Amino acid sequence: MNKYFRCLILLAFFASSSFASEIMIAPLAVYDGNGDKISAPSNPSEELHREFKTHWFEGLINFHCLDQSRTMVPVTIIDANKICVKESADYLIYGYIKKNENSWQAEIKLFSYSEKKIIREFFASDGIDHYERMLSVLSGNILCGIEEVTGLDQDKLIEEKIRPMEFRILASIFYWNPVDNGWGKTILGMAGLNTGFELYPAQSLKIRNSKLFDYSLRFNLAWEIAKNKKNTYPLLMNTIEMVLPFLVHVHFDDSNSLYGGTGFGYEIEMMKIKPKYEKEQFMYQGIFLIEGVFGYEYRLNDSVNLFTELVVDKHLSDEGFIAVKSCLGASFRILNKKKGNQNEAI
């Protein structure tokens, strides 16, 4: 049964990639007026990739920049086809940039693997002092061509303003410590483990100044351990914590985002203590808490996000304390419900 379940997961993982068009950006050759290879002020492939990632296509188009050290510079459609086969790409962007005495010129091609031909060509030029501006114009031309070829109009996607539902599993480790004068003098927080899930409901997109805003709901289940500080009586505390925070995310591009939010939780504390001249005692209590979260998230690929966050817990009891946690973790997408009842499962 376990082997069968693993096979289903793997099949679903590979099937999920079929819903998005994969567009690879090959290393671009840079020549001078004599046809000799030279260096550009910056890597043009990486610059185009960075510009493409700031545009939103609801996950229906994935852009990838191929490693220049492991990928040849394609010259012919035969080269382009070989790269598409190797990288499982639907399209390949390739071409060259030429530095003349007084200007920069670019000629870029869009190769379609399914049609086995070049389906679009793009040109741009600018003065010798305006390399970055030339690349910006070039990227705009390429994006317009991609919208025409794929039938995805970015402006219309934004106007529709619908983000598909997404479900993610979380796992993180953290260091924590109480910071108030009471418990902070007695307890030394050590470590903790956290797991849970995060749900992005289907929601309206909000885009302001090229930044995308959305929200999510989390359920966190954490285990924490702490011991006594030096020169205090022996103490060992284990804690089980459940929290439901509401988070707002600000996406700066396809990879980088900040988020913050707050929520309520419940905590069960179990302590073994041995005050001086007394027998060891076992104590436990359940208390409510308020949690604040602020974090940074990096999208590693379509399925995995890495995050680091700062968490502050305020325990709501007469002897409750404030705890600060520094967390490192990852989230894994297991469901992305798209329009037309198409689901991606991993």
What structural class do you assign from the helix and strand content?
alpha+beta
Q: How many strands in all?
A: 18
Strand order of the largest sheet: 8-9-12-13-14-15-16-17
Number of helices: 5
Biggest beta sheet summary: 8 strands, antiparallel, barrel
Our measurement of the CA-to-CA distance between the termini, rounded to an integer number of angstroms, reads 18 Å
Describe the global form.
elongated
**Helix amount:** 10-25%
Oligomer: single chain
Please report which band the strand proportion falls in: under 5%, 5-15%, 15-25%, 25-35%, 35-45% or over 45%: over 45%
Low-confidence stretches: 1-19
Q: What is the radius of gyration?
A: 26 Å
Mean pLDDT: 82
Order of helices and strands: HEEHEHEEEHHEEEEEEEEEEEE
Would you mind describing this structure in some detail?
α2 (44-52) crosses α4. The model is unreliable at 1-19 (pLDDT under 50). The protein is built from 5 helices and 18 strands. An 8-stranded antiparallel beta barrel has the order 8-9-12-13-14-15-16-17. Strands 1, 2, 3, 4, 5 and 6 form a 6-stranded mixed β-sheet that branches. It has a two-stranded antiparallel sheet with strand order 7-10. It has helices at 2-16, 44-52, 77-87, 131-150, 154-160; strands spanning 21-25, 29-32, 61-65, 91-99, 103-112, 117-127, 162-163, 165-178, 187-200, 203-204, 206-208, 211-228, 235-251, 256-273, 281-299, 304-315, 322-337, 343-345. The chain has 346 residues and is of the alpha+beta class.
